[in-house]
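#lab-general

N.A. 3:47 PM
ok so I finally got the sequence cleaned up, no stray characters, all 373 residues accounted for. can someone with queue access submit it? mine expired

B.Y. 3:52 PM
send it over

N.A. 3:53 PM
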Amino acid sequence: MKIIGILICLLLCSGCWDMKEINQLAIVNLGAADKDPETGRITAYYQVINPSALTNKQSGAAKAAVYTFKFEDFSLGRFTRQTTTIMPRSLFMPHMQALILSERYAKQGITDMINFVELSPDRRTNVIFLIAGSPIETIINSFSPLERMPGRYIRSLINLSGQGFETGYEPIRIKDLAKGMYRKKPMVIPIVSYTSSEPAKDTNRLEDIDIRKKTFLFVGGAVFRHGRMVGRLNFDEKQRYFLLNKNLTNYIETLTVNGDYVDVEASHIRVRRKFNASGLTYRIRATLRIVNNQQTTPVTRGNIRDIEDKFNRQFEAESQAFVRMAANKDWDLLGIQDRGIRDWKHVKVTFKVESDMSAIGNTTGPHTFERGN
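B.Y. 4:20 PM
back already:
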């Protein structure tokens, strides 16, 4: 009876009916898209992994780690069918590292792209989303240094930059965008650019010791409101946005103390917001560590208090400047409207900052040397 029961259970098992051989798949590592605002025609790019180039033994012509396929159509759903006209393998999207859209596509609205990814069962909604600060053709057709696949290179940059975030990553996944579309508070998405006007289509173009001439670079953030790009933030403004919205808990601040530069790492940043009759009050606490000290005087208890006080005042001043900038551009970057407050521009925002120095380095004073005649 046990054997019969086991056999019946085996008959109910589906087995490997949906198994796919890797040599039958076109595994997409990086995707990109552009949309013409006049015609609505969409250009899609699929960067497909070349498995033979990633093995130790490479054949003569198979040197590129990825190949870029380009298609044009008016509907996102038609691209899968189009790939069968040139790709000898089935399109496979679940391993895509990032999705990059052109700036003009983002300004028209990205709701169609979000719906396309969200409603497709074979696509991951945790794929990261980026805006192109350079022409899509340049970004998608360039090799990357140190990493053979540009998609993995860009994903690694995002993972490293997200180490200071509370969750370990920036909230820039497709599913984060889908949730943020219904809020009044805009979302900020990284802008990736390429440092050269010409793409590095072959590895010979990368044979230069100064890699910054031809590489990928993050240059700030794109501001999205209800799924449409409405403007840009520079690097410092983007960082302030995530700090005040409780996403970023660790960053480096440069202070001027006694006429000299002091770089401090602010960590374990705790942000509390409270609405009251007088407006919105922020209470910020941070732990400081000196990472660079150019002062010519020893670090004393009084000097440490000067550094802490300077950090507190500078954090408050920069945050107030950020609030004024957002109001002038009609961007509720603090999400005040999400609390049901319509007249958000007239809400008084105050900052109370407290910091505590935890480490000053191995020595308390600088090394000095007086030159003789």
